[in-house]
Design a protein that fits this description.
The complex is a heterodimer. By secondary structure, chain A is an alpha/beta fold. Chain A contains 12 helices and 14 strands. In chain A, strands 6-7-8-3-9-10 form a 6-stranded mixed β-sheet, with helices on both faces. In chain A, strands 2-1-4-5 form a 4-stranded antiparallel β-sheet. In chain A, a hairpin with a 2-residue loop joins β4 and β5. In chain A, α3 packs across α4, α3 packs parallel to α5 and α5 packs parallel to α6. Chain A starts with a strand and ends with a strand. The relative contact order of chain A is 0.12. The radius of gyration of chain B is 20 Å and the shape is elongated. Chain B has one domain: MetI-like fold, CATH 1.10.3720.10. Chain B starts with a helix and ends in a 5-residue tail after the last helix. Classes of the chains: A alpha/beta, B mainly alpha. At the A-B interface, α2, β6 and α3 of A face α6 and α7 of B. The structure holds adenosine-5'-triphosphate and magnesium ion. Magnesium ion binds next to α1 of chain A.
Chain lengths: 344, 219
């Protein structure tokens, strides 16, 4: 369990990097902190293991306030907190095996026991065949896997990820995130990760905090954040994965007031609560609406359908009303964006 | 060339090797820890101590700015104190060592500063002590740079040893000056130069070999 209580960090140059940060990460969950460049993400995650000492506030790990500890006590706690970095931070002079074993060689653990601990981790991260290679001979994804194996060597309860996938291509990112998810499940590891990519949050985080200018402007479950972002910064981030804006040509055709020859354009929000039934088919076949899909952005996020569909609904007003109430009664949110004239 | 001359040459070669080997070992023994202190006591570093850092940097810069030929003479009292005499091969080792210490300190400091700060952070994050960070992270990572710098220092020491030799320290430099310069025996001068060139070449090759050996991972 990680608790941050009213953390503030002001750098000596006067930059208020963090203010009033309150955060609680539950055991075993994957928690994301998202924000734009310069928002204070790195400062925040580095405060958790006191690589950066907060100017005020408390950092509680398993209830213990790290800011009050002596250097040696702090080192003991840090051994139980793994950390991985954007730039991997591997020793170039050490092999894959030696890198992964590094945290253990700092303790007085016998060689054989180190071997018995490290080899399963290399197995887990898919690096057994590479164990005698050096970092210079590895791809970015493989390097991050070594870093993950290293972070797990001390059997930590917590893993901190500082932009762990930002230096990787989308495909490799996906495989690293999958690996993080696996170790989260397998070891019940609590993961706190920071990122500027909504995609990362969407893929593995259960809960998320949005950081802007050193402050948390929104805390929500990932689903809530994506379907109902409140803070402007959150909306902006969400729109990066769900393009909610209508294409330009459509916007120009859109009128705010209906005419005799126009039909409404609906924006339908899928919140994930909607059942698996074929909603569109029902609208068309049972209720007799003609539905013209203008734009759809639907994503499966942690096994739930989330997203937005923008449609033109063509029918008389009675059918339109019936359609609208059918959608809302199925847990969808419908909003009339405007009206377009049927030209054809 | 007479047997006697060849014997003299061999003796001089031995004296040179002896002076350089001993003074570079001693200088490394003292200079490397100073370099480590210089680096780790920098601001924001693992043993940050700005005052100590400034003081040490000043001493080292001071030593470094003294021309070797002056150092040679200036520290004669110290040499007498340590070795009991100010002439001879053993006496030459004192100024050679003193001259090399600041170079080696700076070389080590510089090589350490090339190591990515991220690695130090990773070490801190895994609960390493400052000493462990130095031994397990900084030194191994900086080793190619250190070996490279040491090679350069040792080669410069051969040159300096000739200077020390000229003021009574023995070695190849002494021989070259006594025979070549004072008695105009050109061939002795040339043989000495040839030996020095071969010695430097061999050292450079050895240095490169070791540098390669400790950085083979950087394929
Ligand atoms: N050591 C430092 N000294 C002074 N100011 C700093 C320091 N580190 C960061 N800052 C400042 O604090 C603010 C937050 O920086 P931080 O690195 O935490 O942002 P970030 O969200 O991680 O950004 P990025 O996505 O670019 O990595 C920035 O304005 C930055 O300039
Ligand atoms: Mg950052």
């Amino acid at each position: 369990m990680i608790q941050l209580l009213d953390i503030a960090k002001t750098y000596p140059n006067g930059v208020h990097a963090l203010q009033h940060i309150n955060l609680q990460v539950k055991p075993g969950e994957i928690y994301g902190i998202i924000g734009k460049s310069g928002a204070g993400k790195s400062t925040l995650i580095r405060c958790v293991n006191l690589l950066e000492r907060p100017s005020s506030g408390k950092v509680l790990i398993e209830g213990e306030d790290l800011t009050t500890l002596f250097a040696s006590q702090l080192r003991d706690i840090r051994r139980k907190i793994g950390m991985i970095f954007q730039q991997f931070n591997l020793l170039n002079s050490a092999s894959v095996y030696e890198n992964a074993a590094l945290p253990l060689t700092l303790t007085k653990m016998p060689k054989q026991k180190i071997y018995d601990t490290v080899m399963p981790l290399l197995e887990l991260t898919g690096l057994i065949e590479r164990k005698d290679h050096y970092p210079a001979q590895l791809s970015g994804g493989q390097k991050q896997r070594v870093a993950i194996a290293r972070a797990l060597a001390n059997k930590p309860k917590i893993l901190l990820c500082d932009e762990a996938t930002s230096a990787l291509d989308p495909h490799t990112t996906a495989s690293i995130l999958a690996l993080l998810k696996t170790i989260n499940r397998q070891f019940g590891l609590t993961i706190l990760l920071i990122t500027h990519e909504m995609e990362v949050v969407k893929t593995i985080c259960e809960r998320v905090a949005v950081l802007e200018n050193g402050q948390i402007v929104e805390k929500a479950s990932t689903n809530e954040l994506i379907t109902q972002p409140k803070a402007p910064a959150a909306r902006e981030l969400v729109s990066s994965i769900l393009k909610q804006h209508l294409p330009h040509y459509l916007q120009q055709k859109l009128k705010s007031i209906p005419t005799k020859t126009s039909y409404p354009v609906w924006r339908i929000w899928f919140h994930g609560k909607a059942s698996q039934e074929p909603i569109m088919a029902h609208l068309i076949q049972r209720l007799g609406l003609e539905i013209n899909i203008l734009q759809a952005n639907l994503e499966h996020i942690q096994n739930e359908l989330i997203g937005i569909m923008i449609v033109e609904a063509i029918a008389d007003s009675a059918k339109l009303a019936a359609g609208m109430s059918y959608l809302t009664s199925n847990g969808l949110q419908v909003e009339v964006v405007g009206y377009v004239d049927r030209i054809n | 060339m007479s047997i006697e001359l060849i014997e003299q040459l061999l003796l001089a070669l031995w004296e040179t090797i002896y002076m350089v080997a001993l003074s570079s070992s001693l200088a490394t023994f003292i200079g490397a820890p100073l370099g480590i202190i210089l680096f780790t006591t920098r601001q924001h570093n693992i043993l940050a101590h700005p005052l100590l850092n400034k003081a040490l940097a000043m001493i080292i810069n001071g030593l470094r700015s003294i021309p070797f030929i002056i150092l040679l003479v200036a520290i004669i009292p110290l040499t007498r104190l340590l070795v009991g005499t100010s002439i001879g091969t053993n006496a030459a080792i004192v100024p050679l060592t003193m001259g090399a210490i600041p170079f080696i300190a700076r070389i080590v400091e510089n090589a350490l500063s090339e190591v990515s700060q991220g690695l130090v952070e990773a070490g801190l994050a895994m609960g390493a002590t400052p000493l462990q960070i130095i031994r397990k992270i900084l030194l191994p990572e900086a080793m190619p740079g250190i070996v490279n710098g040491l090679t350069i220092t040792i080669i410069s020491l051969i040159g300096y040893s000739a200077m020390a030799g000229a003021v009574g320290g023995g070695g190849l430099g002494d021989l070259a000056i006594r025979y070549g310069y004072q008695r105009f025996e050109m061939n002795i001068m040339l043989v000495t130069i040839a030996i020095l060139i071969i010695l430097v070449q061999l050292l450079q090759m050895l240095g490169d070999y070791i540098t390669n050996k400790v950085s083979k991972h950087k394929l």
